[in-house]
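Deliverable D4.2, example record:
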Amino acid sequence: MENEDISLWPYVAAILGRWPLILATALIGAIVGITISAVTPKKYQATAAVVVLIRQTGSQAGANQPFLSVETIDVGSRRQGLLALAESNVIEAQISPDIISQIAPAKYKPGKLIKFIDATLDGDLLTIDARASSAEQAKLLADTWASTFVSYAQPLFADRHTELRLAGEAIAPFEPYSPNTIQNTLLGVLTGLTLGVLLALVVNITGFGLPAGLRRPQRKSSAQSPSPTR
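Output generated by the structure prediction step:
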């Protein structure tokens, strides 16, 4: 049997010839992306920072101590402990209900305020990200959580190895972090383009509405071929 050459030109021609369809689906996708961004509730995020200074060794010498005493701790374990505390519901329990009523985002349930908090420890800097439905509320939540963490954690780690202090107040965000209108619009355009190309290929394969020159030729079987005349 002879190998038959497969030509992609009919499919390319079908896509190029149906660019209005592809453009229409891309525009529809863009409209859908913009609509989703418009109806999605806006979410803001503010970040507060806490300086975490940890020394591996601590020493102390006094009048009644002729010899210097040295203590050693595991810095990595101490950092992980502070980070786990910043991400626990224990911090929420230290905040008064009156303040929680001011800083709690929408759909808040008691004991679940940590769902709107993310803590990250990078070196000596502990960052606390707070999310809310308004910029001022996100800032207030971040500052309250950070200050409460410092006030609660400082006595627990009251030794010569650890020092905690606020790095400054959080800054109210200018724009929401969600929804991302540009990202949603581009995703809608890409989805529309893909759908338009697939529709063009389906039309080409089925032969619906295409010129005769772009349709796939139908091979006749030997049973349907006319018998030679004698």
